From TrEMBL:
It comes from the Eukaryota. One of its GO terms (cellular component) is chloroplast thylakoid membrane. This is Uncharacterized protein.
Length: 72
């Protein structure tokens, strides 16, 4: 295959400065959205871990005292 026939997905296209600025802003929004989603998933994972720790503690205390979790 000759180099002329190969095309990459990241092909550079010459555009006017305003179009380049618009494309850059769009790409920045996509990056920020991905980062926000990643951060939300991390927060949910931490929250879930604390919930499991709390439930485990409640079950252990229930086993020792005989009181149900709501009665504690």
């Amino acid at each position: 295959v000759s180099p002329d026939k190969r095309k990459s997905n990241k092909e550079v296209i010459m555009v006017d400065p305003l179009e380049a600025k618009r494309l850059a802003a769009k790409q920045m929004e996509q990056i920020k959205a991905k980062e926000k989603f990643k951060k939300q998933r991390q927060i949910e994972a931490i929250n879930g871990a604390w919930a499991m720790i709390g439930l485990t503690a409640g079950i252990v205390i229930e086993g020792h005292t005989g009181n149900s979790i709501p009665a504690q």
